[in-house]
Target: Signal transducer and activator of transcription
Amino acid sequence: MSQWSQVQQLEIKFLEQVDQFYDDNFPMEIRHLLAQWIESQDWEAAANNEAMAMILLQNLIIQVDEQLDRVSQEKNLLLIHNLKRVRKLLQGKYHGNPMHIAVIISNCLREERRILAAASMPVQGPLEKSLQNSVVSERQRNVEHKVSAIKNSAQMTDQDVKYLEDLQEEFDFRYKTVQSLEQNDKNSALIKQEMLALQAMLNTLDYKRKEVLSKIGRVIHEIDMLMSNMLTEELLDWKRRQQIACIGGPLHGGLDQLQNCFTLLAESLFQVRRQLEKLDELLTRLTYDGDPIPVQRPQLLEKVNFLLYNLFRNAFVVERQPCMPTHPQRPMVLKTLIQFTVKLRLLIKLPELNYQIRVKATIDNNRRFVLCGTHVKAMNMDESANGSLSVEFRHLQPKEMKTSAGSKGNEGPHMVTEELHSISFETQVCLYGLTINLETSSLPVVMISNVSQLPNAWASIIWYNLSTNDPQNLSFFNNPPSATLSQLLEVLSWQFSSYVGRGLNSEQLNMLAEKLTGQQVSYNDYQLSWAKFCKEHLPGKSFTFWVWLEAILDLIKKHILPLWIDGYVMGFVSKEKERILLKDKTPGTFLLRFSESNLGGITFTWVDQLENGDVTFHSVEPYNKGRLSALPFADILRDYKVIMADNVPENPLKYLYPDIPKDKAFGKHYSCQPNEVSKPSDGGGKGYVPSVFIPVSKILNDSTEPHSPSDLLPMSPSVYAVLREHLSPTAIETAVSCKLSHS
Model:
């Protein structure tokens, strides 16, 4: 089943997450129509290879053309229109930057895998539960309801101001009429009657002025209360969800809803401001003793302006944190002289501001780093699929400045990966006579000068965003706090779900907990230090816990990803637990686990039964990336042979734990079927016999000697058949044991 088919079967809450990251940059129609083809391409490699990205872009356009021909024959007008639009987008937007579309598609596929992994995990961790708190959802609904009510109140006050304006115009007319009559006869009964009527109208005007000012005051108070409480909490919650999403957690939504609330409040405040300006006009035409406008209007206008200043300042946010396109799963780690992207949004979406706000990006104030590239750009509504007022910097590069001695500060492999920096942004909004200076900053970033520093830098980003919701504590690692083990394990599971498409189950997390603490502990109570996570070596090892775990992630990503996603790699299980699981199983049952002593190694252990009925276990030397680059792991499991003394070579691996036939589990991942014995003429070019690598291990009868596999030996099926036909098992064992000499 294709990945897209699995996505379509998800529950609605997960489908809503998928919907959030498909937009006009990569329309969902194309994902749906070209699902199989898209999933068969290596978009991640293309994201770092411009020539490959250009070829994939051209092929993508060809695929769209083929779909366009098909739907044209079916006369599907809507789909024809959409496909033509997509084709124009692909040719126009990405022709000059094909790696950008490769990055977008790669990110979409990765997010799909993460969501599929999250959907398959039966238990939510404490962090994810806190993000989906029902109280938060209720507050979101209350905010939207109150904003809507405020907007309605402001519009109704507009009608009151209009009524007041009409009433005053009538008063002006009648007053001028009385003045003209007075010139002829000041003492007539008609004039006295008109004067009484004018006094009644003035009383009504005074009452209406007070009423309008009171209603305006209530609207302002409602906005003030909403901004001070619920809206501020909503914005802080969104920023916290963004932090968690950056370290692999659930996708953070809600920014469009916040934008709607901010925009409606801004529109209401500007509407109130216009109402106060209208009252000022009415004041210039008519005032009297006890007039409430000159007393109350200045205070109300000052409060409106104050609220507008605060609203705009809070509305200027970093929508997408700094990230190198080459490492989309590692945001906030920036390499010197390598481009990164960052996107900002103003949550107040007013047409008058389109292309009117220029944003400037800078880094730190310590002058150690500078930003190269285009660091001033205008916000606009045209680049975002949802029409938001935003700006995306795509060509910024951090550069380390030379010191006074002419050398760079910490440039090189020893740059401190616990040193935090900040990318700052500033702009100015000029609107309706108001000038508002806006500033915001990214979450703390870590600078590296070599990709070898990336794992430890990423560990710093994880620890910071797990441990604090303070967006700007650049001295955090002067005294890093401890983290709750339960939350840390949840984040570690996210590393696997976001990076390699499948999270960790409770048993795997238990093993990691024991490795971190050296004992069985309660998740909820245990506090783990930063040093234990990333600084101190594991007992008896020359590496830290995080380096060990990062090497496993790299191994999965590059060599065993399909097996991991299928759930066939138990991976995190201790040797002791491994034997408990296998001891009662059918001989030949095996499981796959990650090496605890070799970085980035994977091994398999199988259970066997001796003639006397005793159970024995065999584990092969871990396979590392060097050996797995020569032979796919699934093929190793298929072709693996063991040579026992006085026995012919055989494959001891029969069932994947608990009882899955090996070929049923891994058959679809075999690179090809084992070659049958071939004649030289069948071998292809120049009459050679085809050869394949066959992994072979030797197990001695003497149980006191350690079991160790040999290196992978090149042995064709035909050669192996000849050996079996002409040599005894002992002779074969002797041949396999010998060291190979290079010819």
Q: What stands out?
A: The CA atoms of residues 510 and 520 lie 8 Å apart. DSSP finds 24 helices and 23 strands in the chain.
